[in-house]
Specification:
The protein has 287 residues and is an alpha/beta fold. Helices cover 24% and strands 23% of the residues. It has two domains: 46 residues, no CATH class; 204 residues, Aromatic compound dioxygenase (Protocatechuate 3,4-Dioxygenase, subunit A, Sandwich), CATH 2.60.130.10. The strands form four sheets. The protein has a six-stranded mixed sheet, with no helix packed on it. Strands 2, 3, 6, 12, 15 and 16 form a six-stranded mixed sheet that branches. A hairpin with a 6-residue loop joins strand 9 and strand 10. The radius of gyration is 23 Å and the shape is globular. The termini are far apart. Bound molecules: benzoic acid and fe (iii) ion.
């Protein structure tokens, strides 16, 4: 075993040190990580100042994290790592609803709402009636599937968890009926900026990247015997569909929010203001 570590042999030396690790997967992941990090240092010929700036940045990223703020996940999101992890873990067959990022704003404990229940929490905005079906990839309707829904407000683009002292809004859980149908009512969310007041925001600024996400409704659909799907319904026509800061957009998830004049609404009531309707059918892969 060599003691004389050089630019040429250092990578293999570090990898050799892990030879006794009994956890094979950990060894595989760490070996690949070391090879790629070392290759990166060689490729860009990282200066000591740059190395220290990297350490400083990662330290600040950790220091920005608390119970409600996860700056490392945000970093992973804006570097496209979250979407890549999502892609390699959800290679569902054609016809299955596509997945996208989970994001940091989900909150446990949202109430279950009945058919056409209102999850807006009284927020101002354009009334939005969302309905459709949950089926399996063969088209069989799935009864009793559970859909968690969460989204930002309809004016500022903030989630309830981002507003201090704010009780919940824009969250609910809806279940499909015996025909696999679901329906709920809310307000149409608007586009918004990811949290930009931390080191990740500063990094994006230095890279001349914007911090916007196109308007969307988050959904997490689960049904016994099927792979759950975490995804979004993106508002067709949104100005940021092309440049989502976290690379979450997929064509199949862009949905028409169809505008209507005041009048009869799909829940059987009447809207005295203009409203939108959204129809989306989810397809789950049998487990
Ligand atoms: C979100 O859609 O809630 C989100 C996703 C990634 C980063 C920030 C926000
Ligand atoms: Fe979101």
């Amino acid at each position: 075993m060599t003691k004389n570590f050089t630019e040429e042999n250092l990578t293999e030396a570090v990898i050799e040190r892990m030879a006794d690790c009994p956890n094979e997967r950990l060894r595989t992941v760490m070996e690949s990580l070391i090879r790629h990090v070392h290759a990166f240092v060689r490729e860009v010929e990282l200066t000591e100042e740059e190395w220290f700036e990297g350490i400083r940045f990662l330290t600040a990223t950790g220091q920005k994290c608390d119970d409600v703020r996860q700056e490392f996940i945000l970093l992973s999101d804006v570097l496209g790592v979250s979407m890549l992890v999502d892609a390699v873990n959800h290679r569902f067959p054609a016809g299955a609803t596509e997945t996208t990022v989970f994001g940091p704003f989900f909150r446990e404990g949202a109430p279950e709402t009945p058919m056409w229940g209102d999850i807006s929490g009284g927020q101002p905005g354009t009334p939005c009636y969302v309905s459709g079906t949950v089926s399996d990839t063969a088209g069989k309707p799935l009864a009793n599937a559970l859909i968690d829904v969460w989204h930002s407000d309809g004016k500022e683009g903030l989630y309830d968890v981002q507003v201090e002292g704010q009780p919940w809004y824009g969250r609910g859980r809806v279940r499909t009926d015996e025909n696999g149908r679901y329906a709920f009512r809310t307000i149409q969310p608007v586009y918004y900026s990811i949290p930009a007041d931390g080191p990740v925001g500063a990094m994006l600024g230095a890279l001349r990247r914007h911090t916007w996400r196109p308007a969307h409704i988050h959904t997490m659909v689960q049904c016994e015997g099927h792979h759950p799907v975490t995804t979004h319904l993106f508002v067709n026509g949104d100005q940021y569909l092309e440049g989502d800061a976290v690379f979450g957009v997929k064509e199949s998830l862009i949905v028409d929010f169809v505008p209507h004049e005041p009048g009869p609404a799909p829940d059987g009531g009447t809207s005295d203001v203009p409203f939108v309707t959204v129809n989306y059918d989810f397809a789950l892969t049998p487990a």
